[in-house]
Design a protein that fits this description.
Elements: E1 4-7, E2 12-16, H1 27-33, E3 38-42, H2 58-71, E4 77-82, H3 84-95, E5 100-106, H4 115-131, H5 136-144, H6 151-163, H7 166-177, E6 193-198, H8 206-215, E7 219-224, H9 231-234, H10 236-251
Parallel strand pairs: 2-3, 2-4, 4-5, 5-6, 6-7
Antiparallel strand pairs: 1-3
Helix pairs in contact: 1-10, 2-3, 4-7, 5-6
The structure holds D-malate.
């Protein structure tokens, strides 16, 4: 069973966080959007309060999400997935098209890992087994944050990584390594979709995010300048504005 934060009333926004963080990375979005929406931000299996860690696949996480929204009596939502959150949100939307009215895919991709990326995932798993979570902060901070990330954000992300469980991280890296390729399924997405990239994202190239947006029938594409992989934290004002405009365009229809 997933633990989650929930605040506000109105149409539901469901936020899925990045690896190896937890729902608290959405703090600025929870504050901002709970004025008008019912914001729900779960912790991925093994992170935050979703304990104990166990092995899982992307479809397993989709089932967990479906169980969560059933439990909360949420019929439909706008689903916002960032990075691994997008790896989860995309197949979830394909599996439960009636539950997702709008989709946001931020700093994420549809394709499976390439061979070289799988090799890096395996090295990360070995590092986690050998040295525990201490192996992650330096490695991940370089990948996650752009050069302009404020010091306060850097400290927050480091502290979030340090409190993550090594075992949960092994399961999440394994799930990312083994995820299915969804490229050919993008054309089946029917709901309005916003694809977000960061101009300085070291993990997801702007061109790759743009190509994904082009393959989705009803997609808009936006780049947040001067941010890395965690634009919602690095420039929460720009991220919130972009998401707010996207949501408002469809709220009024
Ligand atoms: C994430 O930020 O969720 C992951 O780092 C994404 C990835 O490694 O593919």
């Amino acid at each position: 069973m997933l633990s989650f934060a929930e605040r506000g009333r109105g149409p539901v926004l469901l936020f899925i966080h990045a690896f190896p963080l937890d729902h608290t990375m959405w703090r600025a979005q929870i504050d901002f959007f709970s004025e008008r929406y019912r914001v729900i931000a779960p912790d991925i299996l093994g992170f935050g309060g979703s304990q104990p860690p166990r092995s899982w696949t992307m479809p397993d996480m989709g089932q967990e999400l479906a169980d969560l929204i059933d439990r909360l009596q949420v019929e439909k939502c706008a689903l916002i997935g960032l990075s691994i959150g997008g790896y989860i949100a995309l197949p979830f939307t394909l599996a439960y098209p009636d539950r997702v009215e709008r989709l946001v895919l931020a700093h994420t991709r549809a394709r499976a890992d390439l061979e070289a990326e799988r090799v890096n995932r395996n090295a990360m798993i070995d590092g986690l087994r050998k040295d525990g979570i201490a192996t992650l902060p330096d490695k991940m901070l370089r990948r996650l944050l752009g050069a302009d990330a404020p010091a306060e954000v850097r400290d927050f992300v480091r502290a979030s990584i340090e409190r993550a469980s090594a075992e949960a991280s092994v399961h999440a890296v394994t799930a990312m390594r083994d995820r299915a390729d969804q490229t050919d399924n993008l054309a089946r997405l029917r709901c309005p979709t916003l694809v977000i990239a960061g101009s300085g994202d070291a993990i997801l190239k702007v061109e790759d995010c743009e190509a994904m947006a082009k393959a989705i029938p009803a997609a808009e594409f936006a780049v947040i300048p001067r941010t890395g992989h965690l634009s919602n934290l690095e420039d929460s004002v720009a991220f919130n504005r972009m998401l707010d405009q996207f949501l408002k365009r469809y709220d009024s229809k």
